[in-house]
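re: ur msg from earlier - yeah i can do the adenosine-5'-diphosphate complex, just paste it... oh wait u already did. ok heres what im feeding in:
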Amino acid sequence: MITFPNAKINIGLNVTERRSDGYHNLETVFYPIDLKDALEVVVSDELRFTSSGLEIPGREEDNLCVKGYHMLKQDHHLPPVHIHLHKNIPIGAGLGGGSADAAFFIKLMNDMFKLGLSVDDMTGYACRLGADCAFFIENKPVFAFEKGDEFEPIRLDLSPYKIVLVMPDVHVSTGEAYGGVKPTPVKDSLLELIADPITEWRKNIKNDFEQSVFKNHVEIRGIKAALYAAGAIYASMSGSGASVFGIFDHEPDVKFLEEENEVFFV
Ligand SMILES: C[C@@](CO)(OP(=O)(O)O)[C@H](O)COP(=O)(O)OP(=O)(O)OC[C@H]1O[C@@H](n2ccc(N)nc2=O)[C@H](O)[C@@H]1O
Ligand SMILES: Nc1ncnc2c1ncn2[C@@H]1O[C@H](COP(=O)(O)OP(=O)(O)O)[C@@H](O)[C@H]1O
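and the outut:
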């Protein structure tokens, strides 16, 4: 069985407080985008994981799909499987690619082996693999809070717009990015600000990771500025970086960004 895990972008991200479990409370909007990996599972005589496409750092046994298999196997009878992941979503990009693979793996296993898991069951499993993993179970635009694993659905349709996603040759680790932020309570909730017209977003909606990440990686700041110069209505780094997206009401000319970065129209 095959499935196509998609990436997300964060529109706004406020890190509001440090938690006693070492994590942070935040508020953000997750929006699914059309940039996908391919994930295939077939029954095999032993558990195997292979990948193609972008190189995935870390050991095979630490891949979130493999971790997902072991997690599900604790509670369900599963045969050994061969998992193949074609990696296309940039890594260390703030696009949640690894989390998407994990969530889509859980959904695929539920369908393939008729595990009878509800959306709530799958969300519970996904939370154990990563804070933003649960979003990809329902995979619809949401306002997210707490660790990024509590959701309120929102009406947000960016399909009339062009979204340009720029990935520089820099990777930012999520843990490192959280380390650089000073948590601050919000005055106006993103849940309200996101309902404003998109033309207002630039004034009011920010990503708290930008300040420290831009300090260490000026090229990322430069990409955001270039997207605004090209006419973006709203531009921001996604999540903990390093990717930056711009939302346009026209097909922008961003050819110049392709010289040093990967550019996706999503
Ligand atoms: C920053 C965000 C924003 O959407 O996404 P990315 O930029 O990574 O895509 C998420 O909060 C990333 O979630 P996720 O990538 O699932 O994080 P995890 O693997 O659970 O945690 C990685 C590390 O990030 C920190 N962490 C993560 C989530 C959170 N609410 N507070 C934290 O402090 C912790 O130090 C943790 O050890
Ligand atoms: N299936 C996977 N795809 C990508 N990275 C994975 C995967 N499984 C585990 N990882 C680990 O997660 C880290 C990055 O996760 P990812 O979600 O792609 O980053 P980001 O949240 O910044 O988009 C990688 O360094 C890698 O070691």
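cool cool. The chain has two domains: 2-153, 162-265. ping me if u need the other ligands too
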